[in-house]
Specification:
With 100 residues, this protein is an all-beta fold. Helix content is 0%, strand content 55%. The chain has a single domain, classed as Jelly Rolls (Sandwich). The chain starts with 12 loop residues before the first strand and ends with a strand.
């Protein structure tokens, strides 16, 4: 399989399938606006998320924790993660993995 060297633009999603043989589905650079909430629901895929910039709160079950740049999250099979953005936009690097 060929390798990939490039730049992921804001809002862009890159399919991992042409480059990796494993369960990686895609990579995305995601921007969330102030006050926005995003639910990552791992019913059909798992997620690994890194916060590039911004801050807010992360909720897993009843636990709520603040996050800022550099924070990372994993959302395993059948888990859920809810991110709520504070007063500035949040930029994320999201990897999606197929559940086999």
């Amino acid at each position: 399989m060929p390798g990939y060297v490039g730049k992921l633009a804001p809002g862009q999603t890159l399919s991992a399938r042409p480059y990796l043989a494993g369960s990686w589905r895609e990579f995305a650079r995601v921007r969330l606006e102030p006050g926005e909430e995003r639910l990552f629901d791992a019913d059909a895929a798992e997620y690994s998320i890194v916060v590039i910039s911004g801050e807010g709160t992360a909720q897993v079950a009843s636990r709520i924790e603040p996050f800022d740049a550099g924070a990372s999250f994993t959302v395993g099979y059948r888990a859920q993660l809810r991110l709520t953005v504070a007063e500035q936009p949040v930029e994320l690097f999201v990897t999606t993995l197929d559940i086999e």
